[in-house]
Amino acid sequence: MHAFNSEVESLANEILAYSLLRLKDDPPLDGPRTAEDLFQEVGNTITAKGLGGHEALEVFTNVLAKACISTDHPRNLAFIPSAPTEYSNLFDLVVGASSLYGGSWQEGAGAVFAENQALRWIADLAGLPQSAGGVFVQGGTIGNLSALVVARAAARTKYPNTSRWAIACSAEAHSSIASAAQIMDVELLKIEPGADRKMHGDALGAAIDQLHATTQTRVFAVVATGGTTNLGIIDDLATIAEATHARDIWFHVDGAYGLAALCAPSVRAKFNGVEQADSLIVDPHKWLFAPFDACALIYRNPDLAKEVHTQHASYLETLHDDTWSPADYAIHLTRRVRGLPFWFSLAAHGTDAYTEAMEETLTVARDAAELVRQHPNLDLIHEPELSIVAFTRKGWAPSDYQKWSDKLLADQIGFIPPSSDKGQSILRFAIVNPWTKITDISMILDTL
Ligand SMILES: *Cc1c(COP(=O)(O)O)cnc(C)c1O
């Protein structure tokens, strides 16, 4: 619509200046507003003649951006927040400026090569063989679904007479597994975790055997969680791997949040057994300091995934050779090279910096748990396995939790929405940001 004239150039300077400011200064937390309220202020921004770049940018920076909670604020400990490195965010500008196509090797070879090296780092941390490989997809939800579709295809080949299929996972598994089961029209065999809140191989094996003995339904995949989202619990991966493979079933590890900590020596042993995975996922946009959105999906045997996910069409056949096209490994075709900001930061900083930053967040989580334990009004739910610290407030009804949380955001102190555990309201700190200091935690605890 415009050549790169002086008007575009001046907008470029404005956008870069805003981006730099946003990256340099601690962002305010900000918060949501209603659609009515926003409409009153900005009106309909889509007009026949256009607002012009300057005006549209002002609408965004002055109004819309402030109606978005800053996920990278050091006292945003909600859900799983985000903490991209400055390098990864800066390089995201390059990705945006370059119109890179990440679906095929032919079009994106250089970028895909770099993404694959970043995936290799994760595969090596997990102890997967050299043949392992995969792709960066949008998020853990798509990553889990893509892997499970491959798992079912593999099972169909081996057990062609099966008419009903099931996924086995812990009752504490992420909601995306239930979503995948629904999309795939398969059943979910939920395993009650043990007293330590982990799923174990013996309970899993017994439940699968019972299902197979009493129904026509066959389990085609076991999903173990490498760090549950609510409490950060890591299933007993080693015994699960054994029970799963002994029954000729696909072993998938959902580590969207937790597997990032594979690079942290202080907790690495908790993931023993992950090296047996047939597939795994981890979201660099959660705890590997990368911007939204990027999920690393890795298969032990990527050829199986390629058979299942490659799309065939007359205009696409030219791409189907023995090169590595990321489109072939998940449910997608066109794709942004969403792993590239992560790659750039990892390449520039080196992996030691990741280990260090990871250990810092783990240390803050341990110290935060200690402060919670010492707090007269609070009860720690569970010793943190990773970087999630969950607790209850003595004497509070569910509405008290919500009121406290709303006020904390309104006061712009922090963002900590309530969650629940075993039917009881809880609060949880998800600490993934190396800029979250123990003083930030104290500031929040002082309001409890
Ligand atoms: C966040 C999360 C997911 C879903 O990942 P998205 O990137 O939000 O789609 C799946 N599993 C676990 C364990 C998670 O923490």
Automatic annotation (TrEMBL):
PROSITE patterns: DDC_GAD_HDC_YDC (PS00392)
Cofactor: pyridoxal 5'-phosphate
Keywords assigned by UniProt, alphabetized: Decarboxylase, Lyase, Pyridoxal phosphate
Residues with N6-(pyridoxal phosphate)lysine modification: K286
Gene3D superfamilies, A to Z: Aspartate Aminotransferase, domain 1, Type I PLP-dependent aspartate aminotransferase-like (Major domain)
GO biological process, one term: carboxylic acid metabolic process
Database matches in PANTHER family: GROUP II PYRIDOXAL-5-PHOSPHATE DECARBOXYLASE, MIP05841P
Stated name of the protein: PLP-dependent protein
